[in-house]
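This protein record is not my work; I was only asked to verify it. Take the sequence as given and treat only the tokens as open to question. I have pasted the whole thing underneath without changing anything:
***
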Amino acid sequence: MDSAVLALRIDAPLQSWGVRSRFTYRDTSSEPTKSGVVGLLGSARGVERTDTARIGELARLRMAVRVEREGILERDYQVTGNVPTTKGTGHRNVVSHRFYLADALFLVLLEGDRTLIEELREDVLHPRWPLFFGRKAHVPSSPLIMPEELGWGTGVFHGQSIEEVLSQHPWQEDRQELRASAEENTRLRTVIEVPAGEDGAEARYDVPVTFETGHREFRQRYVRVDHLRIPWEREKKVES
């Protein structure tokens, strides 16, 4: 297969990547989930919630995440008053807990068939439906694919594996105070899909089968969590 890698910048004041959200408890992972990213690409491409064939096509892409800036976990304590009871005999208050990642920044990589990857690039640049990070209110604060002349490196990469792009891609941090204070050996956390039997593989239950309301279905994948150094040699080229 002639493959390619699509690199996306995931940047927003608030993000929410739920894994076990149920009813009044809405959690978030500490980095983008496979279901969240497939949903994001599905919105860009105009894929219906029940279109299992097109969802499956996106879910088969291999995914990696590099955490450019760890977010801060925030909890929103909500109380909804005057909610009818299930028996219809009165009303009650309902407390819900909603978790968010504040001020996080990620590089998300997707590897797959070259034709599909190039189509996805165009879809992201010209999305059919609005793009958001986990919840509709969490909209991007910068383009997912940055203009090439800025040197941030997002877009399509040919002739490189997802591991090579992950280790060489320019650091997405754009706050000068954080760039200046980063040390030479600063490491970034990475989460990359691997085969089930690989050393260090961890199970994640976030591969979507269908997003049909009331009948959402997911299956398992495996990832390896690791750390790598900021590619300073590449950074110096970008800054020059």
Summary: Strands lie at 3-15, 25-26, 62-69, 72-84, 91-113, 155-158, 187-193, 202-210, 217-229.
